[in-house]
Amino acid sequence: MPLIAFLAPDEEMLTAAKATLAEAHSDVLVDKGLLSAGVRKARELVREGVEIVIARGGTAVAINKAQLGLTVVEVPITGFEMIRALGEAMHYGRRIAVVAFPSMIMGIDCLGPILDINLTYYSIESEFKVESRVLQAIQEGADVIIGGVITVEASSKHHLPCVLIRSGAEGIIQATLEAKRIAEARRIEKVKSTLFQTVLDYAYEGIISTDQNNRVVIFNPVAEKITKVDGKRAIGRNVQDAFPQLELGRLLQTGRDELGQIIDVGSTQILCNKVPIQVHGAPIGAVATFQDIGKIQQWEANIRKKIYAEEHTAVFTFADVIGSSRQMRNSVAIAEQFAAADASVLISGETGTGKEVFAQSIHNASGRGQKPFVAINCAALPAQILESELFGYVGGAFTGADKKGKPGLLEIAHGGTLFLDEIAEMDYSLQSKLLRVIQEKKVMRLGSDRILPVDIRIIAATNKNLKQLVTSNRFRADLYYRLNVLRLHLPPLRERSEDVELCAKTFLERHATLLCRRMRLSKPAIQAFIRHSWPGNVRELQNTIERIVAICKHETVQADMVFQMMREDELNEPLTINAGVPWTETIRQALVTARGRHTEAAKILGISRSTLWRRMKSLGLYSTHR
Fold first, then answer.
1. Average of pLDDT values for 611-615?
2. What are the residues facing 484 on neighbouring strands?
3. How far apart are CA 385 and CA 397, in angstroms?
4. Is 216 a residue whose pLDDT tops 50?
5. pLDDT tens digit sequence for 217-241
6. Average pLDDT, stretch 34-54?
7. Does the domain at residues 312-489 carry the CATH identifier 3.40.50.300?
8. In whole angstroms, what is the distance from residue 94 CA to residue 115 CA?
9. How far apart are CA 17 and CA 35, in angstroms?
10. Which residues contact 334 (CB under 8 A, 6 or more apart)?
11. Do residues 494 and 352 touch, judged by C-beta distance below 8 A?
12. Which letter does DSSP use for residue 425 in this model?
């Protein structure tokens, strides 16, 4: 349906309009409608989607008065058309009466002296006044009357000569072009309005705006949801009545922004920014944007999870714990109870007893299971590096720091669990900084003054007696009691010999399957595993099985193969790299050979980097070889 319609007052103008608009403006609907009939036709056109009506004289006035929601464009009467009508009227006499709506004959007064005629104007405001005006003109001696269609009809009825003021092609085209300019402006405005309304409706923030009288003019759906206020009822009301907590009216007096305010709305807290709207320095309103703080925290957690947590996940669950002994069943039962709590957990046990497996299992079984699980070995790094790893740093915080800065593990673990393995090896001064984070639940990157809130659960593990370290002032007592809320001790493998066979068979099947092989243990081999003391516990057993799978060519593993792997393990003890040479000198030689690179030195010595650091600290070499 066209957006624009042209209403002609009679058949003559209808034909002229159709001919004029046929080619260049065929998208304009042309129809007939005069005065009240034109109003009825316009009402029909509105229902069909027409937005702009072109009409002339009284019809245009009547449609406007009817308030149909249409834009009315009036066909102008040009000076040429008026002169043509007066020239035709002069054939009947010099006393000419003009009976018409004011808009049709603007400026006609000046033509009387120019044409040397007696020109009298009779204004009409509605179609019902036309006949009385015509009779008045007749009584006052008019020779001829000029006007619109209804004026001609009334004059003919009383047998007085009458001339119709016709609209030519120029006026029709001029009105049509004006209607199209209005239609384009309305289209652009409608697009802007739709975009603006879409932004308001689908914004993640609540938005409330007022005018200069403090009346609410915008109240979007998010604002309704947060405030529990009906937006439709709030529109037009004083903002102090609709939402008094905002105090938006104050901004009209101060003209100053109020940013980052925390406001209580019932049981909800919102973070609010308020800004005055000014034109040429004068306030004409104010706008407030706000968000539910709970939602902000949720988004922050999701962002951290998206950015950081992909590499920090726990893979083990309690189903991965191997063992059917009473001690192991008891340990799993206790750990499952700990998972339901949210307090710190301290896991103790010898090296290789599966402390990290239990830590990951506790995390996965807890309410934090879908959040990050961040693990770090406190013995693997020197104190300065461990601090930067835990706390992170801003760009340029120290020599060699990444220019972009780096988030710390405490920050990355937000919402989840931080697993501190070998906590006893943590530097004493760093222990106090960790304690502060646990107490205040806040962290600050190195080189920064910005404090970040963190919500983490600490699970620490150690193979040493922390209580004895506290007594000897090698571990902070306050940190110990902060960590030792829930205590879990994992028994060594030698104390649960009934689990050895199950562990050995499980590991054998797991590693053999990776090589697409089928292997089994002979009974003497199983007895050899059970009789061994396993100082390295489950980890040592798993490593032994892995070596057997790699070397053994037979489907059945015999006892002699097990004894061979155990003897090689004893003969390859890394502490015998240079027989008779003290370990202090051996480590120094390795560091010199590796040019101070700890990873290379550890490879030379045949030990892990963390073992190297522990050995250096115990021998007092830490400060010498950094």
1. 75
2. none
3. 13
4. yes
5. 999 998 888 888 888 888 889 988 8
6. 90
7. yes
8. 9
9. 18
10. 488
11. no
12. G
Using CA atoms, how far apart are residues 587 and 605, in angstroms rounded to an integer?
8
Phi, psi for 38 (deg, rounded to 5)? -65, -35
| CA 449/CA 462 separation, integer angstroms | 33
Alpha carbons 419 and 413: distance in angstroms, whole number = 9
Phi and psi at residue 365, to the nearest 5°: -85, -5
Check: CB of residue 54 under 8 Å from CB of residue 7. Answer: yes
Q: Calculate the CA 477 to chain-centre distance.
A: 44
Residue 105 pLDDT > 60, yes or no? Answer: yes
3-state secondary structure of 47: helix
Q: How far apart are CA 307 and CA 432, in angstroms?
A: 29
Tokens of 209: 């705006």
Contacts of 392 (CB under 8 A, 6+ apart): 405, 406, 407, 408, 409, 410, 411, 443, 445, 446
Contact 584, 621 (CB under 8 A): yes
H helices, E strands: number in the chain: 27, 24
**Architecture of the domain defined by 203-295:** 2-Layer Sandwich (3.30)
| Helix, strand, coil percentages, rounded to 5, for the chain | 50, 20, 30
Are the beta carbons of 364 and 417 closer than 8 angstroms? no
Domains 4-75+171-183 and 79-166 in one fold:
yes
Taking the domain 4-75+171-183, which CATH number applies? 3.40.50.2300
Q: Would you list the domain boundaries of the chain?
A: 4-75+171-183, 79-166, 203-295, 312-489, 493-572, 575-618
Computed over its alpha carbons, how large is the radius of gyration of the chain? 46
pLDDT confidence tier of residue 582, bands split at 50, 70 and 90: low
Of 550, 593, 589, 586, nearest to 568 by C-alpha is 550
Q: What dihedral angle (degrees, nearest 10) is formed by the CA atoms of 267, 272, 278, 281?
A: 120
Question: At 170, which amino acid appears?
Answer: E
For residues 504 and 538, the answer to whether their CB atoms sit within 8 Å is no
Give 51-113 as a DSSP string: -EEEE-HHHHHHHHHHT-S-EEEEPP--HHHHHHHHHHHTTT-SEEEEEE-GGGSTTGGGHHH
Per DSSP, the residues of 446-476 read: BT---EEE---EEEEEESS-HHHHHHTTSS-
AA identity, residue 27: D
β 282-292/268-279 pair status: antiparallel
User: How far is it, in rounded angstroms, from Cα 72 to Cα 61?
Assistant: 9
φ, ψ at 564 (rounded to 5°): -60, -45
CATH 3.90.180.10: does it fit domain 79-166?
no
Backbone φ, ψ for residue 214 (5° rounding): 70, 15
Q: Which residues make beta-bridge pairs with 72?
A: 53
**Could you identify the residue written with the tokens 């370990």?**
583
Provide CATH code, domain 493-572.
1.10.8.60
Tally the residues of the chain: 626
pLDDT tens-digit map of 339-391: 999 999 999 999 999 999 999 999 999 999 988 999 999 988 888 888 888 99
> How is residue 209 annotated by DSSP?
E
Cα–Cα dist 431/410, whole Å? 14
C-alpha to C-alpha distances, 287 to 100, 220, 246, 293, 555, nearest whole angstrom: 51, 12, 10, 19, 78
Q: Are 263 and 245 in contact (CB under 8 A)?
A: yes
